[in-house]
Amino acid sequence: MREDTAQEQGLDLEPPVRMEEEMEVMEEREVEERVVEIEHPLPCLSESDTQGIIKGRDLFGYVGIEAVLDQMRRKTMKAGFEFNVMVVGQSGLGKSTLVNTLFKSKVSRKSCTPNYEEKISKTVHLQSVSHVIEEKGVKMKLTVIDTPGFGDQINNENCWEPIVKYVNEQYEKYLKEELNVNRKRRIPDTRVHCCVYFLPATGHWLRPIDVEFMRRLGKIVSIVPVIAKADTLTLEERLEFKQRIRQDLQANGIRVYPQKEYDEDAEDRILNDKIRENIPFAVVGTDKEHQVNGNKVLGRKTKWGIIEVENVAHCEFAHLRDLLIRSHLQDLKDVTHNIHYEAYRVKRLNESNANGLALSPLTLENGTLEKSDAESHL
């Protein structure tokens, strides 16, 4: 009776077996669709996965994201760059000549001072000279900080203190500008980005003054050691001297640039390992040109021939130039800001939190106060 009634009402009753078969077919289709989704995931992001990568082949058309690089390039070229390099070493090691050779222009303190006469300073005092160098539309404000009087005295005890004080003063200036309520849109950067330390070509071990200076300064600034006037050593003597210096640096725990702990990835590690193998750089500097095989080259003329400054077979000046300018200039600035300045900033803010809201006067390592900073507090 129930079947007759259902047929009269237009209902089509199917046997239970057929319904179960259709349910199994539907479940198999759902499983196949899930497998297809797993094998070919869609580029859109789900709620659980917010770090998906959408590459160019997944986009519907050209978006123009790469134009950001052109925008950054134009803004940076308009603003220009700042680079501050300090040269430290005894008088007569060719610091001014090497700086002029690096930038192929008269940028050293001696070259910019008319009627300059070399005099041995009784104390270490720092002098800085700034220039704006432009090459192919790129402007760079270069500041060279010289340290006349360093290591020239009979008693060189604590001769590094004025240099430590100067480096910390530049960090303090930047920190105060940063903490101002109405600070400048672009804070002038006078921090020392690199310190080129000149070692005399003695062929022996590092002197106590060299060890003490690099041990102290290596904690607050990036140091690049170089062997000055390396043409006074034979190739065998140069190689032995470099090995002894590397042993001294490791034995005394001296940190020179580039440090292994700052390598960001495997590619940087490979490049920096090659640089670390050449440290310290054996360099020769000159601003005079000579004819070699019909070409003008920078070099030093001797009775035995011409020592070409940019020839890697003669000296390692090209490696030093590539490190400071062509490959690691921006990294030197980043290490200064993110490592050395950040460590100084944390230290000073911790001191201010311990003493109150205002920054306490800046002190040297021996505990003496600086007059300029003791008068003014934030």
From TrEMBL:
<keyword id="KW-0342">GTP-binding</keyword>
<dbReference type="GO" id="GO:0051301">
    <property type="term" value="P:cell division"/>
</dbReference>
<feature type="domain" description="Septin-type G">
    <location>
        <begin position="79"/>
        <end position="351"/>
    </location>
</feature>
<keyword id="KW-0131">Cell cycle</keyword>
<dbReference type="InterPro" id="IPR027417">
    <property type="entry name" value="P-loop_NTPase"/>
</dbReference>
<comment type="similarity">
    <text>Belongs to the TRAFAC class TrmE-Era-EngA-EngB-Septin-like GTPase superfamily. Septin GTPase family.</text>
</comment>
<keyword id="KW-0547">Nucleotide-binding</keyword>
<keyword id="KW-0963">Cytoplasm</keyword>
<dbReference type="Pfam" id="PF00735">
    <property type="entry name" value="Septin"/>
</dbReference>
<dbReference type="GO" id="GO:0005525">
    <property type="term" value="F:GTP binding"/>
</dbReference>
<keyword id="KW-0206">Cytoskeleton</keyword>
<dbReference type="GO" id="GO:0005856">
    <property type="term" value="C:cytoskeleton"/>
</dbReference>
<dbReference type="InterPro" id="IPR030379">
    <property type="entry name" value="G_SEPTIN_dom"/>
</dbReference>
<protein>
    <recommendedName>
        <fullName>Septin</fullName>
    </recommendedName>
</protein>
<keyword id="KW-0132">Cell division</keyword>
<dbReference type="InterPro" id="IPR016491">
    <property type="entry name" value="Septin"/>
</dbReference>
